[in-house]
Amino acid sequence: MDGLRFADPWLLLLLAPLVAVAAWAWAARRAGAVGFGSLAGIRRAGPTWRMRLDALAPALRLVAAVLLVFALARPQRGSASGETQGEGIDIVLAFDVSSSMTATFAGSTNRLQAAKRVLTGFVQSRERDRVGLVAFQGSSITLSPLTTDYDALAQSVDRADRVRLLDGTAIGTALGESVNVLRGSGAASRIVILMTDGENNAGEVQPLAAARIAERLGIRVYTVGVVGAGDQFGRGNANVDEASMREISGITGGTYSRAEDTASLAEVYATIDRLETSRIEGRTFTRFAEMAPLLLAAAAAALLAEVALRTTLARRYA
After folding, report:
1. Among 48, 94, 101, 135, who pairs with 160 as Cys (CB 3.0-4.6 Å)?
2. If one looks up domain 89-282 in CATH, what number appears?
3. What percent of the chain has pLDDT over 90?
4. pTM for the model
5. pLDDT computed for residue 233 by the predictor
6. What is the residue extent of each domain of the chain?
């Protein structure tokens, strides 16, 4: 819906004293008129062009002041539109493909196979979202920029473990690269879903430093810990630094989740999907253009016109 609004409408109250000053000046000008015994000759002669210009100069100053007040109130013209469900999300999947991910996860499958299956299903369930892929071990690599070519992206997920990277777990480096993929995005929601089965032990970027960058850029980070089935105390047989994962996600407004089998891993991604969808569903996004610069230019032009009149045609001589 197109329309005009003021970002600071309360500043329009400044128009009241301007009106009062203009009314006082007009009254003072009439009160200062010179009396004549007969006005018939003056009426026939009419006002001279110099008299008209002399009256125009203060009018230009008043116009400039009014325009300045409107500019200070920041008029904006634009549109507002509703965002439909599932639109406006840019997602980067940070995928740990280190050697430890080949450990048994549940049954005859391993963590890597289960992760590929879940990520492929997550990608292929998208409709309008753009998704990117970053694979990491001791370093990281962007296997796919943000795209809606879900078939090609699913193939990249399947081949993610074939890239040649130093072994290890560079969580900070992977998160930094994922944030960089989203840096230029203008989507309503930008998220990173980082999956790992280990703790940061490689790379020069610390995970919390990368999380702080994501926070400043308004990017939420969801962390997922892939662990083995827990014992009676809930401890999984994996070296996931869960405290660090919770801190990373907490800083950016995301969540940390642990997965002990393929089903729970799939549910983690489905839950994140629902969370992000609910964040933008029913929201209204507005795009307004600032009109203040145009009004300021018009006010300056009015003042320049007044100065030009005062110094030329309407100049007063002693």
Report:
1. 135
2. 3.40.50.410
3. 44
4. 0.62
5. 42
6. 2-28+46-79+287-311, 89-282
